[in-house]
Amino acid sequence: MEVKRRTVLSLVAKLGSVSEQTRAEALAELRLISKHDAEIRPAIADAGAIPYLADILYSTSHPAQEDAAATMLNLSITSRDALMSTRGLLDAISHALRHHSSSTSPDAVQSCAATLHSVLVVDSYRPIIGSKRDIIHSLVEIIRSRNSPPRSIKDALKALFGIALYPLNRQQVIELGAVQPLFSLIVNEGRVGIVEDASAVVAQLAGCEESVDEFKRVSGLDVLVDLLDMGTGSSDRVRENAVSALLNLVRCGGERVGKDVREMGLKVMDGITDVAENGSAKGKTKAVALLKVLLQGNSVRDSRSGYSLNQSCSF
Fold first, then answer.
1. Helix, strand, coil percent content, the chain, rounded in steps of 5
2. 33-37, 95-99, 219-223, 255-259: lowest mean pLDDT where?
3. Nearest 5°: phi and psi at 289?
4. Measured distance CA(225)–CA(187) in Å, rounded
5. By the 8 A CB rule, do 252 and 310 touch?
6. Which of 195, 204, 277, 282 is the most buried (most CB within 10 A)?
């Protein structure tokens, strides 16, 4: 391990070289060893590589951007604290994401979004990243743009999902315009994986009061009900996400939303019942809870919290 440390120190020192070729070669080597050697990742962070990586994200060189972003992603597996404690790191990631359609290469955009998703595994980092409106705005623009590569959209969706896991972030994600492009992806995107990820974000955003009117504006309730229709061919994960979203909407919107869902008729009830009978353990639990709300009305109480369902939006 001592030999590895010395190698890392030498490579990191070269990142400050006046020679562009020396910097590029050292960066490429750091990307390679951080990918294949888990043991060496903390040593790279400890050697002071992260500030260099952040600075390189401002470079106009696509190869440099890609190597720096990929190395950051590799480090995020084991060195999340080191990344988040680096001054200016989130600003650098925001810069790279903001220029997703111009000066930042698609590979660098994807690695930056994936780095956010990796860091967001830590609960305490969700409010920090969620407070960065510029990051959320850039992620929303990535999923909105018709020119974004599918991989960029998928990584941006995963980052948005991680941000939305923190309840107080959801309002801001909605305010920054995420709802319309999310439902557009669900309706128009043919790739199952992207529809699954988009519907997962929608399910989280449904857990705040602002979602009720915003979903109504884009006919979101109709879309969610259609996803439950056995004839649409939605994947099991998408259908469970739709159930989760409907449950959260009913919790936040109360009887007004519950009445709208019930008026959808047998199509929605049959879909929810099927998830309750054949879904995953988590899906069954949510489907049963949703059926209780719809069949018994808004008087149903959440046994875990003791609050009426329309008083407790977050799920």
1. 75, 0, 25
2. 255-259
3. -60, -40
4. 12
5. yes
6. 204
State the average pLDDT over residues 27-56. Answer: 97
Q: Which two tokens stand for residue 307?
A: 């609050």
Q: Kindly report each contact of residues 28-37 with a partner whose C-beta sits within 8 Å and lies 24 or more positions away, as own/partner.
A: 28/63, 28/67, 30/67, 30/71, 31/67, 31/70, 31/71, 31/74, 33/7, 33/8, 34/71, 34/74, 34/75, 35/70, 35/74, 37/4
- Terminal Cα-to-Cα distance of the chain (whole angstroms): 45
> For residue 172, which of 119, 142, 131, 207 has the smallest C-alpha distance?
131
Percent of the chain residues past pLDDT 90, beyond the cut: 83
Please check whether residue 41 is in contact with residue 59, taking contact to mean a CB–CB distance below 8 angstroms: no
Question: Which of 122-136, 161-175, 258-272 has the least mean pLDDT?
Answer: 258-272
pLDDT-wise least confident of 45-49, 114-118, 186-190, 288-292: 186-190
| The pair of three-digit structure tokens given for residue 67, joined into one six-digit string | 């190597």
Find where tokens 């315009």 sit. Answer: 177
Structure tokens at 297: 């009305």
CB atoms near residue 7 (< 10 Å): 16
303: helix, strand or coil = coil
Q: Does pTM surpass 0.90? A: yes
Nearest to 265 by CA among 234, 228, 299, 300: 228
Chain centre to alpha carbon of residue 312: 23
Tens digits of residue pLDDT in 209-223: 999 999 999 999 999
Map residue 77 onto helix, strand or coil.
coil
Q: For the beta carbon of residue 128, count every other beta carbon within 10 angstroms.
A: 14
In one-letter notation, the amino acid at residue 175 is E
